[in-house]
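In this supplementary section we document a worked example of the pipeline. Step one takes a protein sequence of length 311 as its only input; no multiple sequence alignment statistics are reported here. Step two produces a three-dimensional model, which step three serialises into structure tokens for compact storage. The input and output of this example are shown verbatim.
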Amino acid sequence: MADFWKGKRVVVTGGAGFLGSRVVERLRAAGALPFVPRSKDYNLVDGAAVKRLFQDARPELVIHGAAVVGGIGANRANPGRFFYENLMMGAQSLEEARLSGVRKFVAIGTICAYPKFTPVPFREEDLWTGYPEETNAPYGLAKKMLLVQSQAYRQQYNFNSIFLLPVNLYGPGDNFDPSSSHVIPALIRKVVEAKQGGKDEIEVWGTGRATREFLYVDDCAEAIVLAAERYDGAEPVNIGAGFEISIKDLAELIVRLAGWKGRLRWDATKPDGQPRRCLDTGRATREFGFKAKTSFEEGLKRTIESYSKTV
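The serialised model returned by step three reads:
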């Protein structure tokens, strides 16, 4: 790894964020020279700013992790913004990478790109068998266009662009803002605040029957760096832990780990989102040797402990 990364100039869009900061840490440790564009300096929705980024950074490799993203509520409130901004950031970054002679582009997609009723476990071959779950379809489809663009550029320009599909992430430093957070940080915040505030009940969206798969953020960062180094294929690759848990079981596990003694009240008038999510992660293992290391319970403990120190 040291030989591959030593002195390599790498642009990491989204590199100051939850996942991107971990990717940057790993790159620095491996001897790379990561460049992290900040949105105040480089608005990736603006084509001129993207061009200026590539002129300033002169990258040999790009990891495109920047995204406008949120949970079900945020997706329902911002479908137009989530579609347009994610589409423009991805399309313009990949095009400018090609024009600038970048050797490799690593596109970070999303599990939301899969059809609503994908057979479980999700296999990469099933990406095009239906329409994504409605509440996050605009976001999922905008990110999915990076796969289309990557494969088209490979075909026409022989450009090396790979496409990764991380499952739902979690870990210390996640987004705990209730207006935009995903399910794990949203539940942790509710439970920790209920415990500290002496509440005996909290409300949870949905029926609790939907299932999800979760990957610890540091494991995902490892997968991205491994793929950037070792994978040069045209086919998309799932990045996950290979298990599923119901939202009901997840909520009860967080309650237990946080040591709260209250009750959960399920609001079935709120959407569950996609019915099930669980990935087939075999391709990542075969192609670049990735396998998740952090157990789910241990990862949740670290996340709860980290958040509890901030409130």
